[in-house]
UniProtKB/TrEMBL annotation:
GO terms for cellular component: cytoplasm. ATP binds at residues 316-320. Residues 221-243 are annotated as: Disordered. NCBIfam families: PRK04204.1-2, RNA_3prim_cycl. Keywords: ATP-binding, Cytoplasm, Ligase, Nucleotide-binding. The gene is rtcA. This is RNA 3'-terminal phosphate cyclase. InterPro entries: RNA3'-term_phos_cycl_insert (IPR013791), RNA3'_phos_cyclase_dom (IPR023797), RNA3'_phos_cyclase_dom_sf (IPR037136), RNA3'_term_phos_cyc (IPR000228), RNA3'_term_phos_cyc_type_1 (IPR017770), RNA3'P_cycl/enolpyr_Trfase_a/b (IPR013792), RPTC_insert (IPR036553). The keyword Glycosyltransferase does not apply. Residues 184-307 form the RNA 3'-terminal phosphate cyclase insert domain. The active site is at residue 340.
Length: 376
């Protein structure tokens, strides 16, 4: 039995744990993590982290120690023989408003080692703070990774907002072969898609519609020649001789407003921007006492900052793509080297990935020349 990878989570959060355990399954190599979520005010495993650990352990029949709430040291030894995962149908109840999408993120790379289809239905929070809203996962991330060979779909049964959760969604994966990723240049802006969701209890206030309007009015590109732009779709501050901003219209491809049954009142908005080489997404969640229009404006503000730069993906997606980069090789331009990116790169290197980070102006290019051997 190989010695486990000794990993220190003292300066990392839950993503470090999730990625480490996913890599353990992918590479069929044991891990030992200490100081789990050590930089958080409440360190150790919370409900959503425990759900990830237990679900991945069940999928590969792993030996696990430390699988309990509050645990700060865990050991995970995959039980599969290196021949891949059997697939099947599973159900997981996180038990709180813990994030459904963060569990899905941990499962998504496993498509590359499946021998048969896998279906996992998860109950918990679908649209909660500190995690991607469900529409970001299924409308932004999944379409992008499918371009590189990941066969995945997501079905929504019920939304779950904080604090009660109670949402339910199903991730379906099929055996997949991922292709090298090349996301370093942004193509022309081609269109925008808008997904605004309200719980039934907020429908009489037209929250979903008001969120969408707040986004479109604030966004620098869009229908009705909103915003400033150049012919290649990148936003600038260039003005003509009269001092008026050079404005460019971008097609609104899709606007979807949903009223959803949910145990808790809540709302979410996801803005997707399509361009010639990739996809970027921007999100905002409703808050008590916060006008719905302002929720939409928050997502638009994040998108406007993205449009002023040159990266082809948003900062969250850049980070989430790194595990796929390690598996397939290639390169991704990140809008910035965040703490998450730095931590993820170090973790991938610990498993043997040849990761290189190179700053290029305000962005950074993360590349993997020699991908991990995922054959186990």
């Amino acid at each position: 039995m190989p010695a486990p990878h000794e990993l220190d989570g003292a300066d990392a959060g839950g993503q470090f744990l999730r990625t480490a355990v996913s890599l353990s399954v992918l590479e069929n190599e044991p891990v030992r993590l200490v100081d789990v979520r050590g930089d958080r005010s409440t360190p150790g495993l919370r409900h959503q982290h425990l759900a990830v650990l237990e679900t991945l352990a069940e999928l590969c029949d792993a030996d696990v120690s430390g699988a309990e709430l509050g645990a700060e040291t865990i050991e995970f030894d995959p039980g599969h023989d290196g021949g891949g995962l059997a697939g099947g149908e599973y159900a997981v109840d996180i038990g709180t408003a813990g994030s459904v999408t963060l569990l899905f993120e941990s499962l998504l790379p496993l498509a590359t080692v499946l021998r048969a289809p896998l279906s996992v239905t998860v109950t918990g929070g679908t649209d909660v703070a500190w995690s991607p809203p469900l529409d970001y996962f299924r409308r932004v991330k999944l379409p992008l990774v499918r371009r590189y060979g990941i066969a995945a779909t997501c079905e929504v049964d019920r939304r779950g907002f904080y604090p009660d959760g109670g949402g339910r969604a199903t991730l379906r994966l099929a055996p997949s072969t991922i292709e090298p990723i090349d996301l370093t240049e942004r193509g022309p802006i081609e269109g925008i898609r808008l997904y605004s969701t309200e719980s039934e209890s907020l429908a009489d206030r037209d929250v979903a519609s008001r969120q969408a309007e707040g986004t479109l009015e604030r966004l620098h590109v869009g229908p009705g020649a909103f915003g400033r732009g150049t012919e290649d779709g990148n936003v600038t501050e260039r003005a003509d001789a009269d001092g008026a901003a050079d404005r460019r219209a971008v097609e609104l491809i899709e606007r979807c407003e949903t009223t959803a049954a949910s145990p808790s009142p809540g709302s979410a908005l996801v803005l997707r921007i399509d361009h010639g080489t990739g996809i970027a997404g921007f999100t905002a969640l409703g808050e008590r006492e916060k006008p719905a229009e302002r929720v939409g404006e928050d997502a638009a503000d994040a998108a406007n900052r993205f449009l002023e730069g040159t990266a082809p993906v948003d900062r969250h997606l850049a980070d989430q793509l790194l595990v796929f980069l390690a598996l397939a090789g290639g390169q991704v331009r990140a809008p910035a080297v965040t703490d998450h990116v730095e931590t993820s790169c170090k973790l991938l290197a610990a498993f043997g990935a040849d990761v290189e980070r190179k700053r290029d102006g305000e962005t950074a290019i993360v590349s993997v020349a020699s991908p991990l051997d995922d054959s186990g």
